[in-house]
Design goal:
By secondary structure, the chain is α+β, with helices and mostly antiparallel strands. It is built from two helices and five strands; from the N terminus they run βαββββα. The structure holds zinc ion.
């Protein structure tokens, strides 16, 4: 789990996700399933606590992982679409 502190961190994660090409799908808004390189699937939650944006992947990595980045890029795209309504 990590907390997004700034926009640069978000864009870094998104760029990383683009390079790695993981497969992500939405379960519901804020909950995503991302398949890893070994065919395993991880669940990533994107949510807010107060003013902090939390990204929580259930894989063993403790740093922003590619699953988090992939889910986050999808989440950002969906959030932008929702705001556009
Ligand atoms: Zn992960």
């Amino acid at each position: 789990m990590f907390i997004l502190r700034n926009a640069a961190q978000i864009s870094q994660a998104v760029e990383r996700a683009k390079q790695l090409h993981p497969h992500e799908r939405m379960v519901e808004f804020g909950e995503y399933e991302v398949s890893g390189s070994k065919g395993n699937t991880y669940t990533v939650l994107c949510y807010r606590v107060g003013d902090e944006k939390i990204v929580d992947c259930n894989c063993p990595a403790r740093v922003p992982c590619k699953h988090s980045a992939a889910a986050l890029s999808l989440h950002i795209a969906l959030a932008a679409r929702q705001r556009g309504h």
